[in-house]
Write a structure and sequence with these properties.
L-ascorbic acid binding; about 30% helix; oxidoreductase; mainly alpha; IPNS-like_FE2OG_OXY; 2 domains; single chain; dioxygenase activity; metal ion binding; two-stranded antiparallel ribbon
Length: about 220
């Protein structure tokens, strides 16, 4: 192992002067359309949404109302997107253009995600496309080099806010742990290996308790 690796992974590519770094990756027109159709969905009468209401986290498409101890006062629609042909038939039938708009949006977002994953590979000194087969929590795989941003927003007492979030998830049986290519005698693993299923089973409990969800997987030296 060389001393260069012991100083840490290569720096991430600097794109701060590139005005078009993110602009145009997903069309502005489509961004407006998907936000509009999301608002239309939540404004539907209850009778049009009751068929997909469920508290079962394994359902492919469901709307639920949070029951947290510290209540967030929100309705949430969740559904899988890729591969589209395996999931789109479970999406809401109303509004009638929901599947068309969200389907187009999902395709463009997937292209954006693939591009971002390749940039992450470049920054970690890995081959392009390394993460495309199995998408995993990067803080674990990068052995602490990458960290998720904390999502924080200010709510308005009179105005509702609609957020469209995209999550990249591996298969339930995917084993997640520090990448061996990033480990060395001076860069020991910070986390133990676990499956994505194990992580999901404890994530909600930990986050509601304000406990960092990765703490239970840390290795103490």
């Amino acid at each position: 192992m060389g001393s260069e690796f012991c100083r840490g992974p290569p720096p991430f590519p600097d794109r701060k002067d590139d005005d078009n770094f993110f602009n145009g990756r997903v069309s502005e027109k489509l961004l407006h359309e998907v936000l509009d159709v999301a608002n239309e969905f939540f404004e539907l009468p209850d009778k049009d949404k009751v068929s997909i209401y469920s508290e079962d986290p394994t359902k492919r498409c469901r709307i639920d109302y949070g029951r947290e101890k510290t209540h967030y006062w929100r309705d949430t629609l969740r559904h899988s997107c890729h591969p589209l042909q395996e999931h789109i038939q479970f999406w809401p039938e109303k509004p009638p253009h929901y599947r068309e708009v969200v389907g187009s949006y999902s395709k463009e977002v997937m292209e954006l995600i693939s591009w971002l994953l390749d940039l992450i590979c470049e920054g970690l000194g890995l081959a392009s496309g390394y993460f495309r087969d199995e998408l995993s929590p990067f803080q674990i795989m990068s052995n602490g080099e990458l960290h998720s941003a904390e999502h924080r927003v200010v709510t308005h007492k009179n105005t509702a806010r609609t957020t469209i979030a995209t999550f990249i998830c591996p298969s339930s049986d995917c084993k997640i742990g520090p990448l061996k290519a990033l480990l060395s005698d001076c860069n020991n693993p910070l986390y133990r290996e676990f499956t994505y299923r194990d992580f999901i089973s404890t994530y909600t409990t930990d986050t509601h308790a304000r406990v960092p969800p990765l703490d239970r997987y840390k290795i103490e030296y």
